[in-house]
Amino acid sequence: MTISNITMRTSAVGTGVTEQEIPFLFPILVKSDLDIIARVIATGVETPLVLDTDYTVDIDDDGTGTVTILGDATGNDNVAVTSEVWIARDTPNTQTLDLAQGGSFNAENVEDAFDRATKQIIENTDNVDRSLRAPPTDDTDLDMELPNSIDRASQYLAFTATGEPTVVASVAPATATITAFAETLLDDANGSDMQTTLGITAFTKTLLDDISADAVLTTLGVSAFIQTLLDDADADEAKETLELTDDEIYNPILCYENEVLCYDNNTLIWKE
Fold first, then answer.
1. I want to staple 59 with a disulfide (CB 3.0 to 4.6 A). Which of 65, 139, 167, 178 is the partner?
2. Buried b / exposed e along 173-197 (16+ C-beta atoms within 10 A)
3. pLDDT by residue (tens digit) across 53-63?
4. Distance from CA of residue 42 to its chain's centroid?
5. What is the DSSP annotation of 204-267?
6. Which stretches of 43-153 are assigned E, i.e. beta strand?
7. Radius of gyration of the chain, Cα coordinates, nearest whole angstrom
């Protein structure tokens, strides 16, 4: 055969129905040349599926075919609509054709070997295209090798002044200085923890989470009746709220710490 399709992967959203069929339009040699993975769309969690347990493969004469889903490798007999099924070709990097010196020449066997090599090239190209790499215009003498696993463990990937990869223990912000005190705020898990770090008392927190002035007054223990006085615009409105007549002067309204709230000449005043 010839190979003109340079793709080597396809995908489909789960249907939640057993024996979901997913066609693949790139050629394979044997069933085991496919990797099938179920991937949760929301979280990206991936679960490899097992041939003849979680799926079967039917190969057509041209090497393309159909994958039939039997389960999701977690006990279900289907892949849910919240997941995707990814199908990718993974041809082993081996060469199985052995031509004997002076023996017969089978063109079909030779073509199969060329097809196998072409598939391997396509898959390797796909892996390279999906990897980090330097552009062709970079200097060829740059050392683009990562530090070894010991040196880069629990470190951050960074780049030197010449653009070569290195590791650093921490990443300093370019435009901001974070003080030691600010760090104690940044590592707090939530707003309540930050308020505690700022020294805000539990009672003050109950005020800060109030959604309105009325809610603050309620938290402070101000009665509903006093709240109706506090929202009066002037003395006349307060007099109406208190149901006072014009001739009620120095008539005590309420007492607080040995003082009396009185109505005097259209004015509310405190008198001892």
1. 65
2. eeeeeeeeeeeeeeeeeeeeeebee
3. 999 999 999 99
4. 8
5. HHHHHT-SSHHHHHHHTT--HHHHHHHT-SSHHHHHHHHT--TT--SEEEEEETTEEEEEETTE
6. 46-48, 55-59, 65-69, 83-89
7. 38
Report the alpha-carbon distance of residue 112 to residue 6 in Å, rounded.
16
Count, residues in the chain: 272
Asked whether 84 and 39 are in contact (CB, 8 A), the reply is yes
Cα distance between residue 66 and residue 31, in whole Å? 10
Token pair 């009066």: residue? 232
Distance separating alpha carbons of residues 209 and 205, to the nearest angstrom = 6
- pLDDT by residue (tens digit) across 200-212? 888 887 877 778 8
Per-residue model confidence as pLDDT tens digits over 155-202:
999 999 999 999 998 876 666 677 888 888 888 888 888 888 888 888
The pTM score is 0.54
